[in-house]
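Schema walkthrough. Field components (list of strings):
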Amino acid sequence: MVTNSAARAASVSASKIIPLGMTAILGLFIVGFVGFSHIEAVHNAAHDTRHSLAFPCH
Amino acid sequence: MSLFRNIVLTAVIAGLLSGLLMTVMQSFSVVPLIIAAETYEHVDSNGAGHSHTAAPDTAAGTAAPASAAHDHAEEAWAPADGLERFAYTAAANALSAIGFALVAIAIAEALGGFGGWRGGLMFGIAGFLTVSLAPGLGLPPELPGMPVAELGPRQIWWIATAVCTALALGLLAYTRSALLAALAVVLLVAPHIIGAPLPPSHDTAVPMDLHARFVNAVYATNLVFWAVLGALSGVIRERFRAGEEISTTSKELAVR
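Field assembly_structure (string):
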């Protein structure tokens, strides 16, 4: 099973790279905005979430 | 494009559900402790004898005290306490859950897919280790009003630790060479040898007992949140995969 998934991992087709890359960037952008943005209003709105997720806050 | 659409749909459904669960868990465990700690924060910003707020920045060196930043609440918009604050917290929880799910599913797909709820659960646990536990070893979950080093360096250390831990877990799970396993251990340990940016002083008005309960609640809620997010992503991803395979095979047939 492990070798199977490794073999599949090696054969990620080029057509998958763009949608997967876009997905990962979109996700990182969302997490970055909610958890790491220095904009005061964003910080205050997501304050309790930032503390609960143990993101660096303040 | 159907791959992108299916992943986004999966992440939105899994993120909304686990974000909602996170909000419910938080409102019973973590949020009351944050609100309790804010009473001490308020005392601090009024200047009631907090040693490091009074200390000159130059003496503190690179790790300048960040307590001064707490005064911002007066100028900037903030949700009103009560329902409004709860609503924004719920929205932020759901959004960050969707963001985490997008990244986790993209990585899983590149590595061959979740393969069902169990694979999803493993990714969820890996997510907990990567963004909660590993950064938390150096930068424990902090309550409002606690002394901390400057925000920028802490965010950089946090992100670097999460990236190193994710790479290390990936190497451990998906490679079989002893050399790469050794590299993974180095990656796991390196951020902690370098060390997180620490505050110049650990003096705080926040009681130790309150902080201990908070750290406990943060890790417990995050572990459940990540496990549910991962397992849900695994299940929902498999549901949507069916249509994808049909569309790719029909495309291949059309090419022939």
